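Researcher: I've been going back and forth with a colleague about how ABC transporter ATP-binding protein might be arranged in three dimensions. Neither of us has a model we trust, so I'd like an independent prediction. The organism is Methylorubrum zatmanii, in case that matters for your notes. Sequence below.
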Amino acid sequence: MDAAPAPPGPREGPTPLFGAYGIVKRFGDFTANDRIDLEIRAGEIHALLGENGAGKSTLMKILYGLLEPTEGVVTHQGDIVRLANPEAARALGIGMVFQHFSLCENLTVAENIALVMPAALTGRALAERIARLGQDYGLHLDPARPVWSLSAGERQRIEIVRCLLQDPKLVILDEPTSVLTPGEAEALFSVLERLRDEGRALLYISHRLDEVRRLCSRATILRAGRVVGSCNPRAETARSLAAMMVGTQVNEVQPRAARRAGAVRLVLDRLSLPAPGLHATPLRDISLSVAGGEILGIAGIAGNGQPELFDALSGESQAPVPEAVRLDGRPVGHLGINARRRLGAGFVPEERNGHAAIPQMSLSDNALLSRHATAPLSRFGLLRRARARELARRVIEAFDVRKAGPDPAAGTLSGGNLQKFVVGREILAEPGILVINQPTWGVDAAAAAQLRQAVLDLAGRGCAVVVISQDLDELFEIADSIAVLHDGLLSPPVPAGATSRAAVGLLMGGAEETGAEAGETPAAPARRALVQVP
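Model: Here is an independent structure prediction for ABC transporter ATP-binding protein. You can compare it with whatever you and your colleague have in mind.
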């Protein structure tokens, strides 16, 4: 029998808390990780950077026991360990906060957390611990709520809470702020800094490079599955970090030249809808109008009605009267999503897995699903597969979608690459109206710039665009005007140049509205709060 390999020594300094050496992971002929070395030390926040498809998520799954490496070893305090499954990783003190939520939809918050907790910790004891941690860290959750009723931001909180409840030595965070507001992100940063100061190690994956520069003292950079460098992020700029990730300078979004908006193309007229579920948010008297060539940005904290508003715009929820929603002057409140697509509208939902795309189906079949109601039909009543494959090919080429194989399943793509596919699929259809929820969730800096530029260019060709986003930097970069959705109420939009992040953030947090007693309309205080007064 061959002797067990000797543990690799640290590259420099004391023995790392965890190490990964010579990690190779192959999926058939595709090499996702190619001889990666990584050392993670106690008391540090270490960034793992790379463009979409660079191999970050694969490496993280190896460290969390979800995948085993084809070659290479993982060490804990200098000893080689085998992480056969997540239970083995958790037993060594490794916790992970996933970008794509690993939650059971039909279970409650407490039941989902209990799945990874000791069997003895259930019921009231678990609920009390959830409440206490939420109070300490500002990560409030209702243990009795079913996951299917929660927003993306609330689901992210479950992932964070159940990781912290395990008292981990190493916390792996994959895009943890992608669905958080600035205020929620600040609260999370305080938690992470406290964990670091307690001597824990944190491995931080984020495409928000300003966060990396603020939090992290070391960064390892991957490109095409290989380590291409390391640095101290605090000594770099966001632009230089992005250049290291992609191997070239990242193009900045080019602002549109001054132009006149066209005719109004999308209207909501005093739309009110009851909450579709017990814990969902009702929409209350929402009005908006978007002209051709205009981008309306809608800001808001997760859980304030964004999914409900998207569903009302897309036709997944129908209005009480047809006139409450109008596309190019035509009442469509009673029509579903396919009928609205036939009228020239396009839609990108927040959740790419399961809502925007079916993970088990190929990219071409996912393209077929989004076009079957609007494209030429075959004698079998379906879009010809050749046309679907051609559409998928065009999206892949135009939006640089990185993939393995000619027509892989959507679920095999990294999160950022799948996002590029679903956004590109809608933009290449040249819709007259586009509603897009969280357009750059989980994509790298280069891909975010590309997607935002594509949205700007589409508006420049006369499309009326609604962008629902929790990323205020994104909204201020591309939106002509910004409104805030809070508790199912929409503030009147104001020009982006006439407001500020602070003013928008105030309304996102539910700033008190006053002034109705002075004879103002209910919307007037919100408009005054949004407008930045010199």
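Researcher: What would you highlight for our discussion?
Model: I'd start with this: DSSP finds 17 helices and 21 strands in the chain. After that, consider the following. Residues 377-381, 512-524 have pLDDT under 50 and may be disordered.
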